[in-house]
Amino acid sequence: MLYFIEQCLNGVQLGMLLFLLAAGLTLVFGIMDLVNLAHGSLYMLGAYFAATFAVLTGSFVLAIVLALIASLVVGMVLEVVAIRRLYERSHLDQVLGTFGLLLFFDEAVRLIWGPAGMTLALPPEMLTAIQLIPGVYYPIYRLVIILVALAVAALLYFMVMRTRLGMLIRAGASNREMVGALGINIKLLYTLVFGLGAALAGFAGVMQAPILTVQIGMGENILILAFVVIIIGGIGSIRGAFVAAVFVGLVDNLGRAFLPDILHRILSTNAAATLGPALSSMSIYMVMAAILVFRPEGLFPAASR
Amino acid sequence: MTAPLLDSSLAAPSRSWLTPGNALPAGLIAILALIPVYAAVTGDTFAMTLFTRVLILALGATSLNLIMGYGGMVSFGHAAYLGIGGYAVGILAKEGIGSGFVQWPAAIAASAIYALVVGALSLRTRGVYFIMITLAFAQMIYYVAIGLDRYGGDDGLTIYKRSTFGGLIDLNNKALFYYLCFALLMASIYLTARLINSRFGLTIRGARSNDRRMRAIGFPTFRYRLVCFAIAGALCGLAGALLANHTNFISPALMHWTRSGDLIVMVVLGGLGSLFGPLVGAATFLLLEEGLSRITQYPDLILGPVLLLVAIYVNGGIEGLIEGRWRG
Amino acid sequence: MLRIGLLAATALALAAGPATAQDKTVKIGFISTFSGPTAAIGNDMKNSFELGLDHVGRKLGGLPVEVIYEDDTQKPEVGVQKTQKLIESDHVDFVVGYIWSNVLLASLKPLVDSKTMTVVTNAGASQLAGELCSPYVFSTSWNNDQTPEAMGLYMNQKGIKKAFLIGPNYAAGRDMLAGLKLTYKGEVIGEEYTRWPDQLDFSAELSKARAANPDAIYVFYPGGAGVQFITQYVQAGLKGQIPLYQVFTIDELSLPRLKDLAVGIPGAQEWVNDLPNETNKKFVADYIAKYNKRPSFYGAQTYDAVGLIDSAVTAVKGDLTQKEAMRKEMEKADFKSVRGPFKFGNNHIPIQNFYLQDVVKQGDDYVLKTVATIVKDDQDRFHDKCPMK
Predict the structure, then answer these.
(1) What's the mean per-residue pLDDT of chain C?
(2) Among A13-27, C199-213, C278-292, which is the least confidently predicted range?
(3) B78, B121, C326, C388: which has the highest count of C-beta atoms within 10 A?
(4) Which residues does chain C have within 8 Å of residue B50's beta carbon, measured at their own beta carbons?
(5) In chain A, which residues have their Cβ closer than 8 Å to the Cβ of B305?
């Protein structure tokens, strides 16, 4: 039971990271109708920036802040230079173009930082576990990730629901042409939204960096999961992304943790060990396929086109 | 937005062979036909290996073009069929069934069946949702392959003996294998040409233009598209069987979504909806990859932006290519 | 227009391609991992190989050497592709390297089919020691079972009654855990395999271990994954609660990053920095002088490949077509190895000693020290399955 609680926490933690990644993706997709395969590259860049700044400044917190700013800047520059030319194109062209960007960023990172990858060391205070409830030890840092991501989610919610910028974003998500017609500076709005998405992705990369290592191509695997999240949650909906992200995180984690044991009763240990994670990974896609068949707009669709 | 009932893309293509648009593919085919001769003369077996790969992936791209270029169905899960075909050969080989007469039909059949299932569930969706759901099905089969412990799982499976055809043809002979792939590729292009110009094909292309109108006229477009999808899957499964023989190795990585991305790139590079486009695209992509990696340590620094530029600028967008010019 | 341009450009690039006529050199293809978290291993191997070549004056058997380094990115499908490229496109005389058992197994067929002389400097897949052994393939490392078998013997000595095993789910990972069970006499109360290579988050497995309450945890995670595991083991508060025994998880590469975290965690190995023979002393000293850090066992094994190849090329007086003669010479293991003298078994896997190593703090430095010899002249269990005599 206690082990189950710990695994649920891990699932929530993964879900929080997926949310950070998916939020940016769903905003960009919902408002600018852009499929961005390079979103994972922004996640990777965030992690690399943080690792580099940590080495340069010696401070973990400062590294995170600087990395966030850097991600925001890179995102906005990328939008102005390349992304905005893809808005008018079909999704297929966007897939092709952003796929090219993905390849480019992987290679650029190899050029600048070398192929070996980096590490981001945690400050020593975070290197222990605390007992949440008797018998359940949880590493402090993972708890921090959950809390910080929740805070970001809350901030995002506040921004989207209570500020003027947020209102424009919501309006753009449901009816882009109208917002343009109302005389809002669409170009600037788009740049800001893309930058925000990039900062969120970079932040996810930064948070994940001390647990996994920082390496080339780290965005590719998680990017697909993020797409699954936004499809399940509904394109353009941050609320949907949050619910779907936690759901996907839990399914993936609990599946990885418990399916091998369940399968172990029928199969050999390492067959169960390979099949278990494979099945739990598959199950996420099966859920997405099922949702698309029955509810193609996702759980909480934002667009009413 | 609505195209006239008889727009130019539905007209029968020109019958004359040597138009300027045909010069490039014709030249390419001539070069491809002579590669084994070149290899025999210079002793450069690597060229043959590289171009065999071009031929096989061109077959895969041709099958994707059938549904994507002509049918408007953008599948981001087409690499799954390369894998299914390859694993059919690999699994049967490991279980002691080495005959190509069993392996290859199995590869084609398995791919066709999976395509039917995927198509039945996916073809009701449109646009980006169709892209995502085909991706989902490809990822599912990818994870199934990883879970296949007995057949190597993530580590892949070495195929010790190529498919045997009872003495009819020895696939270990590189030149023979090359010409087999060449013949199969030409056959599929011919098959595609016949298909798209048949009533079946016209229905598919009409459905891409305006599905509702086609249905209103009385065509059961869903059924047609499903069959088309299955044919494309089957062809790609054949490509998978060829690939497994070529590399003597099969692994789940072949079905990763980035491989499906590669196939899409090949089709788009070559020109969506043109018969020889996938061949041109496959050759361009693979040769670029190979060539760039010889010149520079960082090939994607060039390849990436090239893809981006193609996406932004080529022929006023890919749509323009489909709607306007028609190349047979 | 764009397309024609692209095609023309690529054709040109390709024409610049295949190897031109060569003077008599020894061409060596080197396959290792140079990207991602395990790149440090590849670099260590490359450094050691280069140092070895320096020590023989950049000539093998009197002939100048050309080395082509290829990156397998830790993936079997990339490894087999690069292997084929080295054989078919670069026409190498020797192939050296292979860190990962799964990459090696995928690449074996092209090597054996093309009769390319191969020296495997790390991967120890049991199939290579058994039914897939080949006259053309030699190993300067070990069989995957041997090191864990040694550790099992040691754990018996320490009186460990209940053990919990954790390892990655690929060929070597399974071998490492299976190998322990061959000699370990206590009870295995848990066995967890994690997804390899991308699962670097071991919280689930560590929780299970804690819940099972064993006398000790036994672990195998090479490269950067090892750093992650040890770090998370400490982060979870388990150090001091449940002792850890490891193979290949803590080495000279990971030690500088782990520092205090690794102190007191014992491991087994066929080579440690401080082995007292002359060749080793020179190797370690020159390595530190040239690269400003310590070599690991990966490097030591790769350094030995130079000596092995040199002995072969010298024996045939530079005539690299004499593969039979080279093979016979290599089977004698007649060169100076950093692990001291050793013999090859019939399957071309070394018969050698295994030592217990511990992590000790010396001033500001963290080093691995040889504490004892666990077993002498150990031979792998699979040599009977190999048809070679």
Answers:
(1) 89
(2) C199-213
(3) B78
(4) 14
(5) 100, 104
CA C100 to chain CA mean position, Å: 7
CATH of the domain at A105: 1.10.3470
**Residue A290, C-beta contacts closer than 8 angstroms, at least 6 positions apart:** none
Per-residue pLDDT at A73: 96
pLDDT digits (tens, 9 = 90+) for A37-85: 999 999 999 999 999 999 999 888 899 999 999 999 999 999 999 999 9
Residue A251, domain member (yes or no) = yes
Q: What percent of chain C has pLDDT over 90?
A: 63
The token pair at B181 is 């792939």
| Three-state SS at B239 | helix
Q: Which domain holds residue A227?
A: 2-121+139-294
Domain-embedded: residue A131: no
Residue-wise pLDDT tens digits, C31-44: 999 987 788 899 99
Residues 125 through 154 of chain B touching chain A, CB cutoff 8 Å: 125, 127-129, 131-133, 135-137, 139-140, 143-144, 146-150, 153-154
**pLDDT tens-digit readout, C165-190:** 999 988 788 889 999 999 999 999 99
Secondary element (H or E) of residue C360: strand C350-362
C327 vs C315: CA distance, rounded Å: 10
Q: In the prediction, which pLDDT does A273 show?
A: 66
User: What three-state secondary structure class fits C304?
Assistant: helix
Confidence of residue B325 (pLDDT cuts 50, 70, 90): very low
Mutation pick from C34, C181, C207, C228 vs chain A, by most beta carbons of A within 10 Å, is: C207
DSSP state of B184: H
b/e sequence B148-165, b meaning 16+ C-beta within 10 Å: bbebbbbbbbbbeebbbe
Q: How many residues does chain B have?
A: 328
Q: Exposed, middle or buried: residue B22 (CB in 10 Å: 0-12, 13-18, 19+)? A: middle
Q: Domains in chain A: how many in total?
A: 1
Whether domain C146-269 has CATH 3.40.50.2300: the reply is yes
The C-alpha angle C294, C298, C300, rounded to 5 degrees, equals 65
pTM for the model: 0.86
Backbone φ and ψ for A128, nearest 5 degrees, come out as: -125, 175
Q: Measure the CA–CA gap between C386 and C132, rounded to whole angstroms.
A: 7
Burial class of B8 by CB neighbour count within 10 A (0 to 12, 13 to 18, 19+): exposed
Does A128 reside within a domain?
Answer: no
Q: What is the pLDDT of residues B122-139, one digit of tens each?
A: 888 878 888 888 998 998
The amino acid sitting at C172 is: A
CA atoms of A281 and B145, how far apart (whole Å): 12
User: What is the fold of C25-142+276-351?
Assistant: Rossmann fold (3.40.50)
Could you tell me if B295 and C13 are in contact, meaning their C-beta atoms sit under 8 angstroms apart? yes
Report the alpha-carbon distance of residue B32 to residue A164 in Å, rounded: 61
What number is the average pLDDT over the span A204-228?
86
Tens-digit pLDDT profile for residues A260-282:
778 877 777 666 766 777 787 78
Q: Is residue A300 part of a domain?
A: no
What domains appear along chain B, each with residue ranges and CATH number?
A: 41-323 (1.10.3470)
Q: Which residue's structure tokens are 């947020």?
A: A166
Best of A285, A287, A297, A299 to substitute, by most chain B Cβ atoms within 10 angstroms, is: A285
Q: Are residues B111 and B53 in contact, defined by beta-carbon separation less than 8 angstroms?
A: no
Distance of CA C18 to the CA centre of its chain: 31
Asked if pLDDT for residue C196 goes beyond 90, the answer is no
Among A188, A223, A219, which Cα is nearest to A205's? Answer: A219
Q: Enumerate the residues of chain A whose CB falls inside 8 A of the CB of residue C224.
A: 117, 119, 213
- Model pLDDT, residue B327: 31
| Dihedral (Cα; A252, B79, A38, A8), 10-degree rounding | 0
